[in-house]
Every structure is written in structure tokens, then in C-alpha cells.
Design brief:
23 helices, six-stranded parallel beta sheet, 8% strand, single chain, alpha/beta, 593 residues, four-stranded antiparallel beta sheet
Length: 593
């Protein structure tokens, strides 16, 4: 009988928390900190922590939940934003390092199965950490961002499919033609049943739950766990590993079972259980299996695997990207971004060790490979994207466009109508009367809370280029802009700051990389009243020389009450007037007086 050692569990979780926090503070994913803390405090160095049967069970449940969560985070619609280019990057970034990893193991006397496992491990790309890095480097509105995300998604999915085939082969032992057909047949049967359940049964279940009003978070979370474990067992029965089943369950749960609002609520709990509790146990205990002896006994193999992983990923992506027509330099940049490994690679390596397919030495090499390659991503990607910028080759992606405006008050509606002449504009407001009025005037408006993610999702925030917070409450404006940044990665955020709230200043806006609307603290109420009563004039001033928006406002607002709302470029294209902008010669300022 397995007994839970509470003290040991407490120490492992505390170590995982410490390692994750330190890694995030340094700008790296928490998984690296958890692995490193497991190596430092585990048998490899200090031997303060040790694994046990109870931890192994929790860790195994952790990887099932983690793979389900990864599946829930994947949206296949995103592939359309990169299509051909993303497919090329994924294939090149997987096939070349896969081949180098496979033949490296054979060269050093390893088995073919071990070579295949190492090939998969060096071929995967970390999907979970890309968005944060792209946000920090301000790359989300570029073509390479979409190619990177699509490439990571495809390569991880491809790795899991090949992994499933290898597991089926290993489970069958010695195999002949008939045996191989049986293994393939079981795998095909698993995917067929999984597809039927996911496409037909899951949506039916969702409708029944809604009809029976069984929509409490506790009930739905329990059902979600049953689905994940059920699919995992189905994969095991087919001779595959449970992680493939949990991954498939996550893919189908995303869009077919719960409504978008309910799914967000339930998946948040699932995230906390998997990422915050169970998965860290797996990564810390994975560090326990690492041996530092490889630096003495297998140093040559360690260097070859890491070199092959880096060179193979970058070179493979660059070469295969050429048919896209976007140039080898962009392919090289994408290769540096895809060079990081993460959860999937460690999970696959851990399963290989557990099944005695790879040795502890090879497992240790793969862990050090994952750590070292992931550490390169922010450095290499910063250097290569700056290189593209200097050459004028960092291409903006048209996938993000339009405005999302919080506040359907008269001033917000006035600006929205101006911008809507050339762009898609969506308003969000918690006042139904204002929402109805905006819709009646031809501007799409959504009833919702600007501090909740479901309102942003309904407004298709992931595809918007600019967020404008235009309520009379500066604190709400700042919080909603932060939500737009953290959850939806909207690249441009403009906030109305009220003059009566002295606690809100430009320093806070700079901290979250936002700009102040109208380039000055502004009281919205009198201008809304003027617009409502039609007691204002709209004027235009054309610039003869370049000037900052801040200086324009200072020069023009000394002796008169004005509100600059838009800037028109030479072609008549409109953009909001805000603090972090420059008015160029022949551009015009539209202002109210």
C-alpha cells in the first residue's frame, strides 16, 4: 500500500514554487526553474529531496492533465494565419533535428528505438512559452509570430503521432508483418473512436448538461476529468500511451462540450490544478533522475546532441522555409524562435526512461538539451528580429486589425464612428441602453464587463490591433488595458486618464507600455455632454513640420478648450490621437472645440 509522505510532498511543491518564480523573474518559463531545482536539490547534487511511489503517481496524473491542458489551448483555426509558411517551418524544424538526433545516438552505439526517442525529443518545439516571449519582444503583430505559433503547434502534434507509433511498436515487443498490422490497426481504431466521440458524443453531452442545468463549475470540472482519464485509458487499451489520449481529449473539449464562457471558467480551474499543482511535481521529480556524470562519461554525446538540436532546428527551418518566398533571413529568425523545448519533450523523455527505452544518461542529456536550447530563445530571437528590423524586413501581419473600445458613452461612440469608416470597430459597455444606442447608429457594440475575459472573447479581441479604454474611471481603464495585454496580447493599448484621479499617471502607463488618449489627462463628462447636445465644432489643422502629439497639445490648448481626437495621414487614413505618437508633415489633426 502506497502511503502519502506529506512532508516530502510539501518540500517538492515548495521547491517547484521557488524554482518557477526565479525562472519567471529572469524571463524564462517556470518549467526550467522546476527542472533545475529538481537537479540541485535532488540526488544529483544536494540530495535533500527524493522521489517516492506517491510522488510518482501524482507526477503521472500531472502529465496527463498537462497534456489535456495543452490540447485545450490549441486552436486549429490559428493555422490559417500562417498556412503554407507555418507548415514549411514545422516540417523543416522537426525533420532535420529528428534525423540528426537519431543518427547521433546510432553513431554512439545506441539502439534504433532510443534514436527515435531522442529524435522526437530534439524535434519538438515548446508551444506553451512562445506567446509570452512574443509579447515581451512586441512581435505579435508580425508575420513571424503567426508562423512560430503554427510551426510549434504542428511540430508538437507530429511528435505525438510518431511517439504513439513507437509506443505501439515497443509494447508489441518483437514484431512481424501481421503484428505490425495489428499495432497499426489498433492505433487507427483509437483515432477513429476518439474522433467519433469528440465530434458527435461530446457536443451531445454538452447540450444535455445545459438542458439539465448541470452547469456548476464543480460538476463540469468533474466531467472534464472523467473525459480526460477516459480518453487516456482508451489510448492505453490501444497500446498507446495515455498522454496521447489526454491530448486528444483536450482538443475536443476546447470547442465542443462547454460554451465559451463556461469553458474559460472550468479551464482556469484545470490550469491551476495541472500547472500549479500536479505538473510541477513531475518536472521537479524529473530532475531527480538527472545524473551529472554525463559531463564526465558522455560529454561528447551531450555536446553532439545539443549542437544537433540547435543547428538542426535553425538550419532545417531556414532551408525548408525558402519555398515560402519570404527569404532565408526570416526563416533563420523563425528557426531561432522555434529552438526552445519544453513540456512535451521532457514528458516524452521521461516516458522513454520509465519504459527503459533510453538510459538515465540519455535522459539527463535530453534534460540539459531542453534547458540550454530554451535559454537561447529570448537572446537569439531578440538579435535576429533586430537584424530584420534594421534591414526593413520585419513584416507586419494583417491578421490583427481594427479597434476594440471600452465605453459606448457619447465620446466613445463619436470616436468609434470616425474610426469605423475605415476599420472594424467593436464597442464594449456594461450599460445596455448605451449598447443599444451604438448598435442603432451602426456601430457594433457588445454588452459586457470590460474586466472579464468573456466580453473580450465575444469581441474577437485576439484579432484586434488596438484597444482603447474610454470610461470615466481611470482605474477601470488601466485594469482593462492590462487584461487586453496579459490575456489577449493586443499590441497597442490607449487609455483615457481622468484629471481627478491623481494616483493614475504616465508612470503607470509606461509600466504597462500603454499610451494616454488625447495626450493629456481629460475629463470625459463635459465633452460627452457637448456631443450629446451638439454644442461643439470639429476642426482640422494640417501640419507643416513634424511635432509630437504632446507638444501639439501644449501649443494649442493654452488659451482654448480643445480635444484632439484623430490624426489623418496623407492618404486620409485615421488613427487615434494619443501621447506616444508623432505627427508628420502633411498630416492633419482633427480636434473638437
Amino acid at each position: 500500500m502506497v502511503e502519502l509522505n506529506i512532508v516530502n510532498l510539501l518540500m517538492v511543491l515548495a521547491a517547484a514554487w521557488l524554482g518557477g518564480i526565479l525562472a519567471k523573474r529572469m524571463g524564462f518559463p517556470s518549467i526550467l526553474g522546476e527542472l533545475l531545482i529538481g537537479i540541485i536539490f535532488g540526488p544529483a547534487l544536494l540530495a535533500v529531496l527524493e522521489t517516492s511511489a506517491d510522488l510518482d503517481i501524482l507526477a503521472e496524473v500531472g502529465i496527463l492533465f498537462l497534456m489535456a491542458y495543452i490540447g485545450m489551448e490549441i486552436n486549429f483555426k490559428d493555422l490559417g494565419k500562417a498556412s503554407w509558411a507555418g507548415l514549411l517551418a514545422a516540417i523543416g524544424g522537426f525533420v532535420v533535428p529528428f534525423g540528426l538526433g537519431y543518427y547521433t545516438i546510432l553513431h554512439f552505439g545506441g539502439t534504433q528505438i532510443a534514436g527515435l526517442f531522442v529524435g522526437i525529443a530534439v524535434g519538438v518545439t515548446s508551444l506553451a512559452t512562445k506567446s509570452r516571449i512574443l509579447v515581451d519582444l512586441k512581435l505579435l503583430d508580425t508575420r513571424i509570430a503567426y508562423v512560430l505559433m503554427a510551426g510549434a503547434l504542428i511540430s508538437d502534434t507530429l511528435a505525438l503521432i510518431i511517439f504513439a507509433g513507437i509506443i505501439g511498436y515497443v509494447e508489441a515487443g518483437s514484431i512481424d508483418t501481421a503484428g505490425l498490422a495489428w499495432v497499426a490497426g489498433k492505433a487507427i481504431l483509437f483515432f477513429s473512436i476518439a474522433l467519433l466521440i469528440g465530434i458527435y458524443l461530446f457536443p451531445l453531452l454538452g447540450k444535455l448538461l445545459t438542458k439539465a442545468k448541470l452547469t456548476s463549475r464543480t460538476i463540469l470540472f468533474t466531467i472534464l476529468i472523467i473525459m480526460v482519464l477516459g480518453f487516456s485509458e482508451l489510448a492505453e487499451l490501444a497500446g498507446l500511451h495515455g498522454i496521447l489520449g489526454s491530448f486528444m481529449a483536450g482538443l475536443f473539449i476546447r470547442d465542443s462540450v462547454f460554451s465559451r464562457h463556461i469553458l474559460k471558467d472550468v479551464s482556469a480551474v484545470f490550469h491551476d490544478i495541472s500547472i500549479g499543482f500536479l505538473a510541477p511535481i513531475f518536472f521537479v521529480t524529473a530532475g531527480f533522475h538527472v545524473t551529472l556524470d554525463v559531463f564526465q562519461t558522455d560529454l561528447a554525446l551531450l555536446i553532439c546532441v545539443i549542437t544537433g538540436a540547435v543547428v538542426g532546428k535553425i538550419l532545417g527551418t531556414t532551408l525548408f522555409y525558402l519555398p515560402s518566398g519570404y527569404g532565408w533571413r526570416e526563416g533563420f529568425t523563425i528557426g531561432t524562435g522555434m529552438n526552445g523545448r519544453g513540456a512535451v519533450e521532457i514528458i516524452i523523455a521521461g516516458i522513454g526512461l520509465q519504459m527503459n527505452i533510453i538510459s538515465q544518461e540519455i535522459f539527463s542529456i535530453l534534460v540539459f538539451m531542453a534547458i540550454s536550447t530554451t535559454l537561447t530563445v529570448p537572446v537569439f530571437l531578440t538579435w535576429t528580429t533586430n537584424w530584420l528590423k534594421k534591414r526593413g524586413e520585419l513584416v507586419k501581419q494583417d491578421a490583427r486589425n481594427g479597434y476594440l473600445i471600452l465605453g459606448a458613452n457619447p465620446l466613445g461612440l463619436y470616436i468609434a464612428k470616425q474610426l469605423a469608416e475605415q476599420n472594424e470597430v467593436i464597442l464594449i459597455d456594461y450599460n445596455k441602453d448605451l449598447v443599444n444606442e451604438a448598435n442603432a447608429q451602426g456601430v457594433k457594440a457588445i454588452y459586457g464587463n470590460g474586466l472579464r475575459e468573456d466580453a473580450f472573447e465575444e469581441a474577437n479581441a485576439l484579432n484586434k490591433n488596438t484597444f482603447i479604454a474610454l470610461t470615466g474611471n481611470s482605474e477601470i481603464n488601466l485594469l482593462s488595458a492590462q487584461l487586453a495585454y496579459n490575456s489577449f496580447y493586443i499590441p497597442n493599448r490607449i487609455v483615457l486618464v481622468s484629471p481627478v484621479e491623481n494616483g493614475v499617471g504616465l508612470n503607470l502607463l509606461d509600466h504597462m507600455d500603454a499610451s494616454s488618449l488625447f495626450a493629456n489627462k481629460t475629463d470625459m463628462v463635459p465633452w460627452s455632454y457637448k456631443i450629446t447636445t451638439n454644442n461643439f465644432e470639429e476642426k482640422t489643422e494640417k501640419m507643416e513640420k513634424e511635432i509630437s502629439t504632446r507638444n501639439w497639445f501644449k501649443n494649442n490648448a493654452q488659451n482654448k478648450d480643445i480635444l484632439p481626437i484623430l490624426i489623418l495621414d496623407e492618404n486620409g487614413l485615421k488613427r487615434p490621437f494619443h501621447y506616444k505618437d508623432i505627427i508628420k508633415p502633411k498630416e492633419s489633426v482633427v480636434y473638437l472645440q
